[in-house]
Design goal:
Keywords: Membrane, Transmembrane, Transmembrane helix. The radius of gyration is 13 Å and the shape is elongated. By secondary structure, the protein is mainly alpha-helical. It contains 3 helices and 2 strands, in the order H-H-E-E-H. Strand 1 and strand 2 form a beta hairpin.
């Protein structure tokens, strides 16, 4: 997972943008509304999606591109977003 190619990077970026858009705009789960908060969560979500397969496992060979497994990447992106927002809300109050 250290040396992913450009297509793998784009797959993780698409997953992170979609997950973050649903969490930020759909569920309104954020600290600060706006695009700055959204973009920072996209970065956090990308890291979570990147770590998703090694942490959650390698599921569904049919939904994979090289070492990027889609379902664990989505779960990693969701987990990273929720973790960061919860930590920020805890430290804010």
């Amino acid at each position: 997972m250290i040396g992913i190619d450009f297509v793998g990077f784009l797959i993780l970026l698409i997953i992170s943008v979609i997950v973050t858009a649903i969490i930020h705009f759909g569920l309104k789960y954020y600290i600060i509304p706006g695009w700055g908060s959204f973009l920072s969560k996209v970065i956090v979500s990308w890291i979570g999606a990147w770590l998703g397969s090694p942490v959650f496992g390698y599921w569904f060979e049919g939904l994979a591109y090289k070492q990027i497994y889609i379902i664990p990447a989505i779960l990693g992106a969701i987990a990273a977003n929720i973790l960061v927002v919860d930590i920020c809300k805890t430290l804010k109050s």
